[in-house]
Amino acid sequence: MKLFIAGHNGMVGGALVRRFQREPGVTLLLRTRRELDLTNQAAVAAFYAAEKPDGAIIAAAKVGGILANNTYPAEFLFENLAIASNTIHGAYAAGVPRLLFLGSSCIYPKLAPQPMPESSLLTGPLEPTNEAYAIAKIAGLKLCEYYRKQHGVVYHSAMPTNLYGPGDYYNLERSHVMPALLRKFHEAKAASRPEVGAWGTGSPKREFLHVDELADACAFLLKMDNPPDLVNVGTGTDVTIRELTEIVAQVVGFKGRIVWDATKPDGTPRKLMDVSRLTALGWQARIGLRAGVEATYASFLAEQAAGTLRG
Ligand SMILES: NC(=O)c1ccc[n+]([C@@H]2O[C@H](COP(=O)([O-])OP(=O)(O)OC[C@H]3O[C@@H](n4cnc5c(N)ncnc54)[C@H](OP(=O)(O)O)[C@@H]3O)[C@@H](O)[C@H]2O)c1
Description:
Blueprint: E1 2-6, H1 11-21, E2 27-29, H2 41-51, E3 55-58, H3 66-71, H4 73-93, E4 98-102, H5 131-151, E5 154-160, E6 162-164, H6 177-190, E7 195-199, E8 205-206, E9 208-210, H7 211-223, E10 230-233, E11 239-240, H8 241-252, E12 257-261, E13 270-271, H9 276-281, H10 289-306
Parallel strand pairs: 1-2, 1-3, 3-4, 4-5, 5-10, 6-9, 7-12, 8-13
Antiparallel strand pairs: 8-11
Bound molecules: NADP nicotinamide-adenine-dinucleotide phosphate.
């Protein structure tokens, strides 16, 4: 199988490359953004026509934190819509039989039931701060669903929960909670600081999946003859931010105090994926949170030593 991984330099794309390099009979087709700008419809069409891959995984997206999403909603909507429509329609036009599109848990309504089932899609308003990104992702998953329904191509989508692992962003302005904590505790330990400040009360609950597990779930879904149109990928369990913070501090070896600033907002109390659909199909996450954080800290140190740390 000649498999195109769009966005292979990203955190998810990197994990997909590691996973599919181990898969017998798979040849990877990779292009950097400089070689192929996925917002360029003609370039993407020409690429598919020339290479004729047997399958594609779309892990490229314009990704950012709340501030970037809120400040540049036009770019987030336009670029992500363009990436989705060019990669999905381009694949169909070139006769690519198989495609897996990656979305995100933010496609579900702000007030979706917890844990969030796939059936909660389009049942209520989205979280306003990432509405633009979510609408582009919803358009992408609907494109897959409709091309499959109308044309019989097996195009489908996976919605991962919060991810962590090698290749994450450690820039504090755009990073997610896990890499931000790793970096904070690492720097506090190096500077022998007696305490580290933490945001809010620590009571909100969140779910975290090691990115290598997402890649494994993608391989599992690609091997299915008749995968579901949409499936959540997560661990099915959540932890409080306080528990996560304590695990990260222990793994890094920070011995000082953690001081919670309850005057800062906590955000949504709980965000957890309902993973019963994927579990029923036969896939389950295996990496426990502590083991995952240990592996991620080891890769943080290795990336720092090699000068490849992002952000
Ligand atoms: N990280 C998470 O916690 C998480 C959780 C749920 C879902 N996801 C989903 O997983 C997917 C990948 O996320 P990620 O965390 O791996 O993000 P990432 O590390 O920022 O990777 C995104 C990749 O897409 C590439 N890209 C962006 N625009 C492009 C364009 N116009 N042409 C070609 N390539 C382009 C980027 O290229 P450059 O390297 O040149 O910038 C980058 O390599 C996204 O759909 C995201 O919604 C991520």
